[in-house]
Amino acid sequence: MEAPRSTPEKDAQEAVQFDVQGEQPEGYTASSIKALEGLEAVRKRPAMYIGSIDGRGLHHLVYEIVDNSIDEALAGFCTRIDVTINKDNSITVMDNGRGIPVDIHPKFKMSALQVVMTKLHAGGKFDKNTYQVSGGLHGVGLSVVNALSKKVDVEVYRDGKKFSQQYAFGNPTTELKAEPLAKDQEKITGTQVTFWPDDTIFETLVFSYDILASRLRELAFLNKIIVITLTDKREEKEKSHLFQYPQGIKSFVAFLNENKRQIHEVIYFEKEKKASISKLQWHTMKGIRKTCFLLQTISTRLRAVRT
Fold it and tell me: What tens digit of pLDDT does each residue of 182-197 get?
C-alpha cells in the first residue's frame, strides 16, 4: 500500500503542461479532470496541509493531535496531555478528555471515530455547542495525520469501555473493538493516538526532543489549566519533562524576558466573558524596545522598534 514519495520535481511532472506556443495538450477533455476521493488529496499534495514534507511537516503531525487535546482543555474537559517518542520513533499522544465519540454517525453510517479519522473537515469544532474556541487545521488534523502515516493505532476511553481501531495510509484495517474496563477504571476517559509517519512521504522520520519540548512548553504557558509531559524512550536512559505553569501567560512573558532588563511588571488583562487573557511587558535590549503580546493560546511577537 506504499505510495511514491512526493517531491517538487514529481509534482511538476504531473502538472498539466503547455507547449512553448501556449497551446493546450491534445486530448484535454472531461476525462482529463481528476477528482481525488477520501484522503487521496492529502497524500498527493501533503505540503498543502502541513506546510512541508521535511522536519517541519513531520513535527506538525504531533502539533495537530496535541491541538485537539488543547481544544478539550479549553472546553473544560482535559487537564493532562502526555506525549511520548517511542523507541521505534513513533509518537503517542494521550489525553484525559472526553474521548472521541464512537457511536454511529447519522449521515455516514460509521462510527464517529472513523469519520474523524477518514473524513476531511470532520470534527466537533464546527458545532458551537461543543467548542466555543478551537485551534488546529479546522477539522482535518487527525485525518491528515492518518493519511500521512503508514500505521495509526487509536484508543478511546469512555462509557466504561476501551474502544480501539487500527488504520494504515488513511484507511481502517480493523473494525472498531470495544472492551469493558475494570471496575476501578470505569470512569477513565480520554483518547490515545499512536502513529508511524509514512517514509514514502517524509524526507526524515526522526523527531527532535528539543523541537517538541519548545512547542509543548509554549502550550503549557498559554494554557495554565493543563499539565503536559514529554517523554523520549529512544535512548537507554529515558528522558522526560513536565510542563506546568499555574501563572500561565504571565510566566511565559517572564520566560521570554528572562535575560533582559524589565522596565516594569507584566501588565495583565483578563476578561472571562470571551475567555480571553492578554499580558504585555516592555523590555530593553541594546537600545531596542520590544513588546510581546499574547492572546489565549496564540503568541504574536510584534516587530522591534528603535527608540
Answer: 999 999 999 999 999 9
